[in-house]
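Record format v2
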Amino acid sequence: MNSLINLQGEIALVTGASRGIGRSIAEMLGKAGATVIGTATSDKGADAITAYLSEAGIAGKGMVLNVADKESIESVVKAVTGEFGTVSVLVNNAGITRDNLLMRMKDEEWDDIITTNLTSVYRMSKACLRGMTKAKKGRIISISSVVGASGNPGQTNYAAAKAGLVGFSKSLAREIGSRSITVNVVAPGFIDTDMTRELSEEQRNHLLQNIPLSRLGQPSEIAGAVLFLASSLGAYVTGETIHVNGGMYMA
Amino acid sequence: MSDIEKRVKKIVVEQLGVDEAEVKNSSSFIDDLGADSLDTVELVMALEEEFGAEIPDEAAEKITTVQAAIDYITAAQG
């Protein structure tokens, strides 16, 4: 790892870190020197995180966290602070989809998405802010999506939550900028993960036609943007959304 | 000066980065000591930690002066 980027001494909390983009972020922050706590919804997921972190020689561990549950968030942040210290880099990555056309969408499908993808970010940020304001430094990075900016049929709920993260982050960036805490968003396009492997061959081909770089992105290409924002190189960037989508959508 | 008064003033000095001599009982955090709204939130959090007390939001909103903080803590500890 380039010595320009050094996260030694930072405590990074990455939600949804058992696979895909979250795992790549956890590994990259860890390789840059941060202590990483990755969360998953199950014991199995948390154990898998602990295993890949230790295999890569990264300090930290996996923990079980349900981001839709207020008490779970409070107890995990408290446990992390007690065991490792104040969280200095929070990466809100955990997210789900419940796609449906609006006319068929059920209230649960709407509520699940808002709770897991948006309310969780409010709660996680609030839980970590006490320590960050005291330390007068911190990074809050939330993973949005290109569809929050471009829209996508079948994803009114998901797009609303993902766009919501942008307004949330801009407002919070203004509130706590005076404490040297930055709040930013990374908006991935179509990335090669389990979430996009569910697409049909036809959907995939159609998508690729609209991506100037003619390929899906890799999780590490999202992690790279997160690493930049988490490091001192990104210190003067706040309230911003970095689009990483191969040119599919140019904001 | 009571023990509570001393500790409250010490925290005000630390949190707001003001001179000890400036901190009078009648001082308003925002009008006299240059605090902004975020400073007052942090100040209440620091008081909570110092005195091991939980200060509810409704009460926190009323703690706008040094004396109000002393009074609240005194009552809470009593």
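DSSP finds nine helices and seven strands in chain A.
The mean pLDDT of chain A is 96.
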